[in-house]
Design goal:
Blueprint (H helix, E strand, L loop, with lengths): L1 E10 L3 H8 L2 H7 L3 E8 L2 E10 L2 E15 L3 E9 L5 E13 L2 E13 L7 H25 L5
Antiparallel strand pairs: 1-7, 2-3, 3-4, 4-5, 5-6, 6-7
């Protein structure tokens, strides 16, 4: 079951600061809903463990994340795949781009995700709404984190 999630956030920080935060495992770990760990394996690879509840199913996903199509500090594609045992799997990616807007940054994203296994049986409406909620939470958390740390620039 595949889905597309798109959105935009205005972040009160310069493009370079937003770019650095998007590449900082500590900041990402704090912003990803349900993230238990996110460890940098190389400049473009990370390993993650995320616990999520989708409808009646609670699963712990072990996954790998890769950053590709890097165009610092303007855009990249983040790709990942996670396995949640009996609950199923999730894989996908997001094209993320940053555009200067005065002293702020406009972050836009277009994410594609595919889920399978027991989770896919929950129905597309529940999966899609939960995915949109999680993406919204991540970018809202990210925005608050990066905007609030602006004084540290």
């Amino acid at each position: 079951m595949a889905m597309i999630i798109e959105g935009e956030e205005k972040i009160e920080a310069p493009v370079q600061k937003v770019w650095e935060a998007l590449n900082d495992p500590k900041i990402l770990r704090e912003c990803i809903p349900g993230c238990e760990s996110l460890d940098k394996k190389s400049d473009t690879e990370m390993a993650a463990v995320v616990s999520l509840k989708i409808g009646p199913i609670k699963a712990r996903f072990n996954g790998e994340v890769q950053l590709v199509n890097l165009n610092p500090p303007h855009s990249y594609t983040i790709q990942g795949e996670g396995k949640g045992g009996i609950a199923g799997f999730a894989k996908g990616g997001a094209d993320v781009s940053l555009k200067e807007d005065g002293d702020a940054t406009i972050l836009t994203y277009a994410a594609k995700a595919d889920v399978g296994g027991k989770m896919a049986q929950l129905g597309s409406r529940l999966i899609t709404s939960t995915s949109k909620k999680l993406a919204g939470e991540f970018f809202s958390n990210f925005n608050a984190k990066v905007s609030s740390s602006r004084a540290e620039v």
